[in-house]
Every structure is written in C-alpha cells, then in structure tokens.
Design brief:
By secondary structure, the protein is an all-alpha fold. The chain has helices at 16-43, 49-75, 83-103, 107-135. α1 runs antiparallel to α2 (49-75) and α2 (49-75) packs antiparallel against α3 (83-103). The chain is elongated and about 50 Å long. The protein starts with 15 loop residues before the first helix and ends in a 6-residue tail after the last helix.
Length: 141
C-alpha cells in the first residue's frame, strides 16, 4: 500500500478536506476529553489543577477553530455541503460561553455545557465518518 503524494488523486469518495475534517474533529474530541480530566483535577483540589485547566481552555479554543477552518475547506474547494460549517459554529459559541462561565466560576452551568460539548463533538465525528462511508458505497474502512 503506497502513501498518496501531492500529485496523486485522492481515493474515490475521500476528499483531502474531508480527511482533514475527520482529523480535526478527532483532535477536538480528544482535547475536550482531556479538559474534562483537568476539570477533575481542579475539583479534586490538585495543586496546579486550576492552571492546567485554564491552559487547556486555550487548547480547546484552538481545536474548535481548526475544526471550523477544516469545515470551511471541506465546503469551499471541495464543493461539499455548508452543513458542516453550520454544525461547527455552535461549538465555537459553546466554547466562548464555556470560557466565560469558567472564568466567572459558574460551575452549575460550566460542567453541563462541557458535557454537552463533548457529546456534540463525538456526534459530529460519527456523522462525518458515516458520511464518508456512505460516499464510498458503504464499504468497510
């Protein structure tokens, strides 16, 4: 099995922007899960837990912005659906709200919104993966 080069065409049904979307969604989900672990450290009063959790907030924002950029790339040059952008924008809004709630120490809303973000990220990742499969005619990956 050879690796694709820049000059080789992508495999049937698999656009490079779609691949990037899958990668950024997986990264986003992983970073949000890691953020939940650092929240546990914070709630367990582990020294430096607050500093690590605050630093990870920046990583979550970066991952969400990368995912939104990948959604734009999947739509624009690839001629894909703008639905991925529409589904990615709420994650950016949730992230900004989550950061504001965290800095304001409103745990009653901060924790449930974090759970909602992780679930939404996983759901979008599954939708993108299933969309890739249906574009290939249902073959196993």
């Amino acid at each position: 099995m050879s690796l694709p080069t820049l000059n080789s065409p992508p495999r049937a049904g698999r656009h490079p922007a779609q691949q990037l979307m899958r990668i950024t969604l997986a990264l986003q989900s992983l970073v949000i899960l890691t953020q939940a672990v650092t929240a546990g450290l914070l709630l367990a009063s582990v020294p430096d837990g607050r500093a690590v959790h605050s630093a990870m907030a920046g990583a979550v924002l970066l991952a969400v912005l990368l995912n939104l950029g990948a959604a734009i790339l999947a739509w624009r040059p690839g001629g894909g659906s703008p639905r991925l952008i529409v589904k990615s924008i709420p994650m950016l809004l949730f992230t900004l709200a989550q950061m504001a709630l965290g800095y304001a120490h409103v745990r009653e809303l901060h924790v449930p919104v974090g759970v909602l973000m992780f679930g939404a990220s996983i759901m979008l990742l599954v939708q993108v993966r299933n969309g890739d499969r249906s574009a290939r005619g249902g073959e196993a990956s």
